[in-house]
Specification:
Layout (H helix, E strand, L loop, with lengths): L1 H24 L5 H5 L6 H4 L2 H8 L5 H13 L5 E2 L4 E2 H36 L4 H15 L2 H15 L11 H8 L10 H7 L3 H38 L2 H8 L4 H13 L1 H15 L3 H6 L5 H10 L3 H29 L7
Antiparallel strand pairs: 1-2
Length: about 350
């Protein structure tokens, strides 16, 4: 618990450093250019001087940063032009969608990666191992946006099996927006079940398949390669040879002795994979028009949406610190030899 609290105390330091860096880099722009990021109406666009004075954009950097930090601590991260809403409201609305996509992809990524990596190691240098290594190399090397486009061309354009975007069908979007539909978690698949909307649940899953499949094919390749390498190393160890010499069945040797120890590095890699997924999955969400944090972050960068970019960066910092801390704690649970001080 002490270790966990120490790591969480690092979060304010990380976020403070990150905001200092981003706000500091903005000083290379003129006050008018920085003021344009806060324009929300035509009237404001015609009176940038008022924004410059209100925001203190013509003041020295310490004063500018102090004003921004004071507003941020009160929950005011500014107005995002990319979403046409306040940044905090945008994060609150879009984060559940990204979490839903990340959770839908994370479990298959880890399970498939471990299973295929184990299979490849047990068939070392045979056809199955070579085939899986080839597929892993292709999945690891292929850019996410290229794979996403290929899946769209095949399963949406040619076969028509799945929709080409991550949004619900229009009928269910209307249901989602109705006052009678209760948003318990913000995740459509979960909320539709809790509201008894089974048809909406199926439609949400249908729209979730291609974005999740894109992430699964690219990210599971990393787990596969690491699992194969670790299991091959463990199979050479003395305790595995001893277990075999005792006459234990091969499945017991693999399952109880070899694979369990080979899984230790997978805990760390899984944490990094989940950080990447929950951090926005920018390309995947953009390609499929998925209404999550990643799509918003990409649009914010393209439209010079300074408050949006800062909010997106801060959210990623929170995700990295929290998930990496949980990963370290889980590693200690899996491996009792690890002690935290």
């Amino acid at each position: 618990m002490v270790f966990f609290l120490k790591r969480l105390l690092q979060l304010p330091v990380v976020m403070l450093t990150l905001t200092l860096l981003i706000v500091g880099l903005l000083q290379f722009l003129s006050p008018a250019e920085r003021a344009s990021a806060y324009v929300t109406s035509d009237a404001q666009a015609r009176n940038l001087d008022l924004i410059i004075r209100d925001r203190g954009l013509d003041q020295p950097f310490p004063i500018q940063y102090g004003r921004w930090l004071s507003a941020a601590l009160q929950g005011d991260l500014g107005f995002s032009k990319a979403s046409n809403k306040p940044v905090t409201e945008t994060i609150r609305e879009r984060l559940p969608a990204t979490a839903e996509l990340a959770l839908a992809a994370a479990f298959p990524i880890i399970v498939c990666g471990i299973w295929l990596g184990t299979t490849a190691a047990l068939h070392k240098n045979r056809f199955l191992d070579r085939f899986l290594r080839l597929m892993a190399t292709a999945g690891f090397s292929l850019p996410t946006f290229v794979l996403g486009i290929l899946l769209l061309v095949i399963f949406y354009g040619a076969l028509g099996w799945f929709p080409g975007n991550g949004n619900l069908s229009v009928l269910y979007q209307i249901t989602l927006a109705s006052p009678e539909f209760h948003r318990y978690t913000g995740m459509v698949t979960v909320d539709s079940l809790l509201n008894g909307q089974w048809a909406m649940w199926l439609d949400a899953l249908h729209h979730l398949v291609l974005p999740a499949l894109t992430l699964i094919l690219t990210s599971s390749a990393v787990i596969l390669k690491v699992m194969r390498a670790q299991l091959l190393e463990v199979l050479k160890s003395d305790y595995v040879r001893t277990a075999r010499a005792k006459g234990l069945a091969e499945r017991v040797v693999i399952g109880k002795h070899a694979r369990r120890n080979a899984l230790l590095p997978i805990v760390t890699f899984s944490g990094f994979v989940f950080i990447g997924l929950l951090g926005g999955v920018l390309f995947t969400e953009t390609i499929f028009g998925y209404p999550g944090i990643g799509e918003w972050g990409g649009q914010a960068a393209l439209r010079f949406d300074v408050p949006g970019v800062i909010g997106f960066a801060l959210l990623n910092a929170v995700v990295v610190v929290v998930v990496s801390t949980l990963t370290d704690v889980l590693y200690g649970i899996v491996d009792p030899r690890v002690r935290f001080s």
